[in-house]
Each structure stands twice: as structure tokens, then as C-alpha cells.
Amino acid sequence: LSWEVALSCLAISTKFYHDFLHPLYPISMKEFMVLSPHKLSSSQFERMQRDILGFFDYEIHGITPHAFFEELWDALPSLQAILDFGRPRRIIRNEMWTLLQRAALRWDMIRFPISVLTAAALIEGIVLALADEYQ
Predict the structure, then answer these.
(1) What share of the chain is helix, strand, coil (3-state, %, to 5)?
(2) ∠ at Cα 96 (82, 32), nearest 5°?
């Protein structure tokens, strides 16, 4: 149980602070679950996070750029097919997060919705990933 609590707390903190802790990038659920010394299902992992937040009577209402990225990636199989080379998803995600972190430091970026910033950073990340791959 202590591993589940520790990993869940780490996941919760990553969801809130990854934009500001350079050079950290978001970690997928699968990467967290690999850290556990015993088998942990995604539903157990999510339930533990809800239990921890519920214990403190805390609710999350914000939408993160990572959620938009995953939705866009899953919704665009043609994009996945075009970018079917080497290690595209990780490169694109890292480039996207670098751009979003830079944007988070600029006061004038607050006027744009997070969905627009994420889409723009994703497009730029794709361009940078393709340039890096084909140099």
C-alpha cells in the first residue's frame, strides 16, 4: 500500500508542477506503474489518486496540456502514420513541453486558452522533431 500511496502522490504532484520544474517533463501512467515493485492496474492507480485527493477534500478542475496532447494524438491517426519514424512521440512531446514551459513564463500568454497553446506547441514540436530526424 505504501508504494501505491507514494506513486499516487508523485503522480498528483507531477500533474500540478511539471510546468515549473525544469527540465522535468510529464510522465505517462505506464511509466509510473513500471516503478511499482508489484503489479498495479491503471484503475487501481487512478483510484488511489482519487482516494488521496478525497482524503484532503480536494477536487481537480483544471485541464492540463498533457490531456490535450493525448486527445489530439489519439484523434489523428493520419498524423501518427506520417510521423511513423524512430521515436517521434517522445521527441514531439519533449519539444512541445519545452515550448509550453517557455510560454508559461510570459505574462502575455495567459490570454490564450491552454488548448490553443497546446495545439500551437504540438505543431511546432512536430516541425522541430521532423527537422531533427531528417538532418
Answers:
(1) 70, 0, 30
(2) 95
* DSSP letter (8 states) at residue 111: G
Cell of 49: 489518486
Q: 94-130 pLDDT, tens per residue?
A: 888 888 888 888 888 878 888 888 889 888 888 887 7
Give the closest residue to 3 by CA, choosing from 40, 50, 42, 54.
40
Distance CA 61, CA 29 (A): 19
pTM, 2 dp: 0.54
Give, as one character, the DSSP assignment of residue 24: -
Reported as a single tens digit per residue, the pLDDT across 10-62 is: 888 777 655 444 555 666 777 778 888 888 888 888 899 889 988 888 776 66
Residue 133 CA to residue 135 CA, distance in Å, equals 6
Which residue in this structure is represented by grid cell 499516487? 8
Residue 100 three-state SS: helix
